[in-house]
Write a structure and sequence with these properties.
Elements (H helix, E strand, L loop, with lengths): L1 H19 L8 H27 L1 H140 L6 H76 L2 E3 L4 E7 L8 H18 L11 E2 L3 E3 L2 E3 L1 H12 L6 E7 L3 E2 L4 E9 L2 E3 L4 E8 L4 H22 L17 H14 L2 E8 L3 E2 L6 E5 L1
């Protein structure tokens, strides 16, 4: 607006000066008018600025401090950016603190559950201790009966051996007599043969020798019959002796087996009592210690290496919880076991596992688990289970789904989501033959607290009934962890 006014005044002033045809410094009237017009415009502008400066303090500040204000503005913008970054950092710290609080609460619940389980196991151990003590009493009674029976059998064996010695002596005497008579009969036959050639001359002698020979033959037949009877008696006595020896050996084996069982029961009882009172439980019976995936197409001669690798992983896992080796056993492994009178060695167990794996071309999941309740400071006796490690869920496949309502309170949605993740999803995975470690069903489908909060906020925004769908993001085998994503529809 001021520029327009100055332009109008300058135009009119130039027109008047042009009409008057003034001249200064010897210049032409036209040039003189232009110089006066320019000077008047400058003068009007200066006067206008002076008037504005006098009239307005803001304009004075703008003209005198404008540069400094620009610098301060840039500085303030930088400070605002730094404050926004600090705000973002604080927000991230709060989110991490929330995650930490959730994990701590979860660990606290887990520890409470473990304490309750340990208390229940302690009660069960006390009950089993009473049962084992009763079994010990029964075993001791059986051992006493077996000792009495063994003494009776040994007495019978001694009597049978004495009878056998007497019969054997009789048999030896008869055998010697039989050999003498047999020699005499052969000599008589030879003599009879020689006499036959002189039959006519020695007929009387021949008849006498014939009668003698017949008597000897009859005596020989009687001795042979007596010898057969004695041989049968000796054989029968030998059979009875063998039976008695077998019975004594069987009684000794039973006695040794009962003694071994008694020692094992007493050792297990003492170990259970000591451990339940003094140390913490490391692994519950049947709890998974380690797992290892054997890929497809492994050669038969390489399968033993996978068994050894699994046992190494189990030892590391057990030692991290407090297991210790002894002079006889490592901290964790396949220990010799007794099956009746048969001792199943570590090598026999390893060979059985390798033979089971031979010929299997598909991927296999090897799981080492604790055979007994294991306490800190002692070795962990392991068993091994083998599963087909097939693909259970393909990428994008739905695992489970549930209907919910976005109009529900946030606490209700959180409870429904926890039930979905801790019950429905693990149940569906188990039915599909995924191998979930025992005791980890409620944490198998873990979702961070931040992701869970984001999911709850998305549900609340819908403000209507919906279906929550959990699906896998990649191909998942039986022994893989379950990585989930969610869709709301």
């Amino acid at each position: 607006m001021l520029g327009g006014i100055i332009a109008i005044i300058a135009d009119r002033l130039g027109r008047k000066l042009g009409k008057k045809r003034l001249s200064i410094f010897g210049l032409r009237p036209r040039q003189t008018a232009e110089i006066i017009t320019v000077g008047a415009g400058i003068l009007i502008t200066l006067v206008t600025l002076i008037v504005i400066l006098v009239a307005s303090s803001d304009v004075r500040i703008w003209l005198t401090q404008g540069r400094r204000a620009i610098i301060e503005r840039d500085s303030l913008k930088k400070e605002v950016g730094q404050l926004q970054q600090q705000r973002q950092d604080i927000s991230d710290s709060n989110k991490r603190a929330q995650d930490l609080a959730f994990r701590l609460n979860h660990d606290l619940d887990t520890k409470k559950t473990e304490v309750r389980q340990i208390s229940e196991q302690r009660n069960a151990l006390q009950k089993s201790t009473a049962v084992l003590r009763a079994q010990v009493g029964g075993l001791r009674a059986k051992i006493e009966q077996t000792r009495v029976s063994l003494k009776s059998s040994q007495a019978k064996l001694s009597a049978s051996l004495s009878r056998l010695k007497v019969v054997q002596d009789s048999y030896d005497a008869i055998d010697r007599r039989y050999k003498v008579l047999d020699k005499q009969i052969r000599e008589a036959n030879e003599w009879n043969h020689r006499l036959d050639t002189d039959n006519q001359k020695l007929d009387a002698s021949n008849k006498t020798l014939g009668r003698t020979n017949q008597a000897l033959m009859d005596q020989r037949a009687s001795l042979e019959a007596q010898k057969d009877r004695l041989a049968q008696d000796i054989e029968r006595t030998k059979v009875e002796g063998d039976q008695l020896r077998a019975e004594v050996a069987s009684q000794k084996e039973k006695l040794e087996e009962l003694g071994g069982q008694l020692a094992q029961v007493e050792s297990a009882l003492q170990s259970s009592l000591n451990n339940s009172r003094l140390t913490s439980l490391m692994f519950r019976r049947g709890e998974e210690v380690a797992r290892l995936t054997m890929p497809e197409g492994v050669m038969d001669e390489q399968m033993g290496n996978y068994i050894q690798s699994l046992l190494r992983e189990a030892r590391l896992s057990a030692e991290s919880r407090g297991a210790k080796a002894t002079s006889a056993n490592p901290s964790a492994g396949l220990f010799p076991r007794q099956s009746g009178s048969l001792t199943i060695t570590t090598e026999m167990q390893t060979d059985a596992l390798v033979n089971y794996l031979k010929g299997k071309k598909k991927s296999q999941l090897l799981v080492a688990y604790s055979l007994l309740n294991s306490f800190e400071g002692e070795p962990v006796a392991l068993g091994v289970r083998i599963y087909d490690n097939d693909v259970i869920f393909h990428a994008g496949q739905v695992v489970a789904e549930v209907r919910m309502n976005g109009r529900s309170e946030q606490e209700v949605l959180v409870a429904q989501l926890d039930d979905f993740l801790k019950v429905r999803v693990p149940d569906r995975a188990q039915k599909a033959h995924m191998v979930i470690p025992p005791g980890t069903e409620k944490t198998f489908a873990y979702v961070s607290e931040a992701d869970k909060l984001q999911l709850i906020l998305s549900m609340k925004k819908l403000d209507q009934p919906f279906k929550l769908v959990a699906y896998v993001t990649e191909d998942t085998r039986a022994g893989d962890p379950l990585k989930l994503s969610f869709r709301i529809r």
